[in-house]
Design brief:
225 residues; mainly alpha; globular
């Protein structure tokens, strides 16, 4: 029993030391990134993108869908969701690696603005530092607006405008409920859930989006088919 306790304490100490070192490296990565290009400048670059879509142009169903499936506590946290992170950490420990991120919408936006997709704990910390800065500069609606204009939707489409044009031949404001829920599910794995790659998997993912919306209480079961 004593040996087990000592082993547990030893593993915990190693975990805390590794976490502290990753946090330090993440902070340095964050500082280097924002000193090279300030967050305000990165935001301005996104706002100047061709075919930029404003929050007001996004259908309510799409907004509700993407929050429900990507970051259900989006409007309650400040860029970092400790609940999702702890849940993801537990799964990562069980898998002995970084297989799940638990990233918020703000963290995902921060990663796209500055960092690569490489799965490293230090990068996760860097995302959090940038996300906190983004949350101070922008409202939640503005963050979501920036996010949907830069995420990848598969099949070569970046941003909600190009994705709507490419998949549905319409503008974001013209999406119906089916299209909105389909589009909300794609960014999780664009190469898998693109309707042009696999209509079957895209529809299965759309059903997951609907389930998330029901769980979040933004629609009733069966309200959207």
């Amino acid at each position: 029993m004593k040996l087990l306790k000592k082993t547990f304490i030893g593993v915990l100490m190693l975990f805390l030391l590794a976490g502290g070192y990753s946090c330090y490296k993440g902070y340095r990565m964050y500082r280097q990134a924002v000193e090279a290009v300030p967050v305000e400048k990165k935001i301005e670059e996104i706002l100047n993108l061709k075919n930029y879509t404003s929050y007001e142009e996004l259908p309510e169903t799409y907004v509700n869908a993407i929050i429900a499936v990507e970051d259900k506590r989006f409007r309650r946290h400040h860029g970092f969701d400790i609940i999702s992170t702890m849940r993801a950490a537990g799964r990562n420990i069980a898998s002995v690696g970084l297989v799940e991120g638990g990233s918020t919408i703000t963290q995902q936006l921060s990663r796209i603005m500055y960092f690569s997709q490489e799965k490293k704990f230090s990068r996760k910390f860097a995302e959090i530092f940038v996300a906190r800065e983004v949350e101070k500069l922008c409202s939640k609606d503005e963050i979501l607006e920036l996010y949907v204009n830069v995420i990848y939707f598969g099949s070569g489409y970046y941003g909600v405008h190009d994705a709507c044009q490419g998949y549905f031949h319409n503008n974001p404001s013209e999406m119906n409920d089916y299209e909105a829920t389909m589009l909300a599910g794609i960014p999780n794995a664009p190469s898998v859930y693109s309707p042009k790659v696999s209509p079957r998997l895209a529809e299965e993912r759309r059903q997951q989006v609907l389930e998330a919306m029901v769980e979040a209480g933004v629609i009733e079961e069966g309200e959207i088919q």
